[in-house]
Specification:
This protein has 1 helix and 29 strands. This is Exo-alpha-sialidase.
Length: 386
């Protein structure tokens, strides 16, 4: 009985479709779906992650054939960009830009506002500011995930480029300089303006690092110039500020080895844990009940790590260190290799629970770390052209 009823219903559907197709009556069918806006160009459909493993988000993306990835950047755990190009001498580059809003599971193509560039590059600034250099046309800046762009000249470079650098840093007044004898602490504002701290601790200090917690607490470190022989090691002074650098509170000193030339502070997002990190050196702050540092305790396992690129604080008083020897998880008693980060050489914190890992060489691959109580849960995001 059920089979006969199904057959009758199927035949009725066919007849209805046939009669509708030949009818002269006005059609009341819905209008077709609106095509994508001009600011988004799709080739077929957005790519989807073909791998069911959420830790392997690999995609062939809709960019010109023969192009290669110039880089992949993320502004948060969901929003990322990948720029592809292929350039030959004497001709314009083929360029493609794709974005993801779901952490690299799927990508869509964005239409670029130029077509005759002979050199292209991409930077991603704080606040999700996308900056694409397309010589000789200029810089193209987007604040809405590549839907619209604002054109700027090549010279002078746009101030938004500062947003792609660290918000808090120690360096030269000329950002293009490779070194200077009097490196100073700098802050980049939300508008991209770069300026010195409102004030600094007094004394003869060779500044080495400046950072901030999510609540705005600044941590500043520097080698104290006391006239001692360099062979005796370095005395590293540390200060904190809760009023954007107007006043400073001394947070003790640490003794580092002579090899630890540059010691930088690294702080947890909630300001609950602070470390000093440098070549062959790491030390964790011990706080009293008032929140003042009473001692800096060295993690001796770091003495064998000579080349340190950068580091980020993990929960449970641990440190994630990117070095020339790989990525390590360090605590007060040991140093353990992070096997999920074996291809990572540089780290960048995106927010309290997300860290981005970069490979040694420019490619279409990055790694997203979801921070939990156990450390990093890494996901590989990879894109390639057809």
């Amino acid at each position: 009985m059920s089979r006969r009823r199904a057959a009758v219903l199927a035949l009725a559907a066919v007849l209805l479709a046939t009669l509708s197709a030949g009818s002269c009556a006005p059609h009341n069918t819905p209008a077709p779906a609106q095509t994508p806006d001009d600011d988004v160009s799709y080739e077929e459909v957005p790519t989807g992650n073909p791998n069911e493993n959420p830790r392997e988000r690999l995609n062939v993306v809709p960019v010109p054939k023969g192009t290669s990835p110039r880089g992949v950047e993320f502004s948060d755990a969901g929003t990322g960009y990948a720029l592809f190009s292929s350039c030959v001498a004497g001709g314009a580059c083929q360029v493609g830009l794709v974005i993801t809003l779901d952490g690299g599971y799927s990508w869509v193509n964005r239409k670029l506002p130029f077509d005759d560039a002979i050199d292209v590059d991409m930077r991603l600034g704080r606040g999700n500011v996308l900056i694409i250099k397309a010589a000789p046309d200029g810089y193209f800046i987007s604040r809405d995930t590549g839907r619209t762009f604002e054109r700027r000249p090549l010279t002078p470079p746009p101030v938004e480029l500062n947003l792609a650098d660290q918000q808090y840093s120690v360096g030269c007044q000329d950002t293009a300089a490779t070194g200077c004898p009097d490196a100073q602490p700098w802050i980049v504002g939300d508008d991209g303006s770069r300026g010195p701290l409102p004030s600094r601790p007094s004394g003869q200090i060779e500044w080495t690092g400046l950072t901030a917690a999510a609540n705005g607490t600044l941590w500043l470190a520097g080698r104290v110039k006391n006239g001692a022989s360099p062979a005796t090691g370095a005395t590293v002074g540390v200060w904190s500020s809760t009023d954007k650098g107007r006043t400073w509170k001394a947070q003790g000193t640490a003794q580092a080895s002579p090899a630890a030339a540059v010691i930088r502070p690294v702080v947890a997002s909630d300001n609950s844990d602070v470390w000093l990190v440098g070549p062959q050196y790491a030390a964790e702050a011990a706080f009293n009940r008032d929140g003042a540092v009473i001692a800096w305790t060295e993690a001796s396992s770091m003495r064998e790590v000579a080349q340190v690129f950068n580091a980020e604080v993990l929960p449970n008083r641990r440190l994630l260190v990117a070095s020339g020897q790989g990525v390590w998880v360090v605590d007060s008693g040991q140093r353990v290799r992070d096997t999920g980060a074996r291809l990572i050489f540089r780290l960048r914190r995106l927010d309290a629970t997300t860290i981005l890992g970069y490979p040694a060489q420019q490619s279409g691959d990055v790694w997203l770390c979801t921070v939990d109580l156990n450390g990093c849960d890494w996901a590989h995001v990879g894109v390639s052209a057809r």
